[in-house]
Amino acid sequence: MNRLFGSKNTGPKPTLTSAISNVDTHIESIDVKLAKLNAELQTHQARLSKMRDGPGKSAIKAKALKILQRRKMYESQRDQLQQQSWNMEQADMMTSNLKNVMTTVDAMKTTNKTLKQQYGKIDIDKIERMQDEMADLLEVGNEIQESLGRAYDVPDEVDEAELDAELEALGEEAEFELGGTMGESELPSFMKDEVPTFVDEPPEAGKVKEAAG
User: What's the confidence (pLDDT) of residue 208?
Assistant: First the structure.
């Protein structure tokens, strides 16, 4: 069997990327051949424009026609190869996009599984009970703050008239004590005969008393 069909290929399988690279290389080689044919055509065209009709001109014209045929063949091959390369690039892009989609799907599956495992360990009822306890504690704290910040009002049984009378009595008592320590004829210490150094003559005693009265 191996003699008829050859040995089994054990090398790496070709990929789209390698196939595209091979086709592009072939297209480049055809472009080189086309450039050479175009140069030959220009040369023959220049010679034909200067020659008269005759066997020589006919021979050069025949060569130019063969070159044109070869150029058309190469151009057709290049167009086919360019189309093949474009198709393979499209297929490669689709394959790459599909791989990205599959990677995204696998990542989403893994994340979904992890989230289910994590959230499955959480007891919603316990969280709600904890929230209720926190609300109760905050309410108790607010009540304590309100109680500590309460103002102490004057008792209702205290009469404001009595308070006014007591305040007036305190004022009379203060005036009496002040009058006992300072007689009518007695001057304050700052109004006695002692005169500051910046006054030329001491004031008369009678005038000081009148001023004091």
Answer: 46
Contact 188, 182 (CB under 8 A): yes
Instruction: Report the residue count for the chain.
Output: 213
Q: Report residue 209's pLDDT band, with 50, 70 and 90 as the boundaries.
A: very low
What's the CA gap between 139 and 162, in Å, rounded? 42
Q: CA–CA distance from 144 to each of 68, 139, 150, 162, 194 (Å)?
A: 105, 9, 10, 36, 65
**In this structure, are residues 64 and 44 in contact, taking their beta carbons and an 8 Å threshold?**
yes
pLDDT recorded at residue 205: 52
Q: Where are the alpha helices (DSSP H) in the chain?
A: 2-5, 16-50, 55-120, 124-148, 160-181, 205-212
Please name the amino acid found at residue 27. Answer: I
What is the per-residue pLDDT for 9?
62
- Cβ pair 85, 30 in contact under 8 A: no
Can you give the pLDDT at residue 87?
93
